[in-house]
Design a protein that fits this description.
143 residues, mainly alpha, 4 helices, 0% strand, rod-shaped
Amino acid sequence: MAVQEPSYWQMEGWTQMGARRESLGELIGELASQSASLVRDEVSLARQELQQKLKTVQSASLAVGIGAFLGLIAALAICAAIIIALAEYVGPWQSALIVGVILGIAAGVILLIGISRFKRTNLRPEQTIETLEENKEWLKEIT
């Protein structure tokens, strides 16, 4: 039986179909490179997701701040009018006390509502965490 010499293409690592055969070292190097690229992409996704959530928190904080400021101005004007009106029936200090207690209760309720809204805001980058877990499982499968 004659020993067949390898062709030029086989010596260069090519198959007859024209596909390049890569060595195990090349494949591992490519896997490492792609894994690093994947991690960079995941970090970028996490940054984008956190920036989006931060914008939501900033807009909510701004709305609460503006609302609180305008509410304070309105409350002061209404307070003065109610105190003056109640002073006709009870003494001035008593009318101021009544209005102050009512406003204090209203302020407490509004603050509790605002705090509960902040607590419901989740700052964890859920999508990024999910894809990182998927990538972790994928890497375990191929190694």
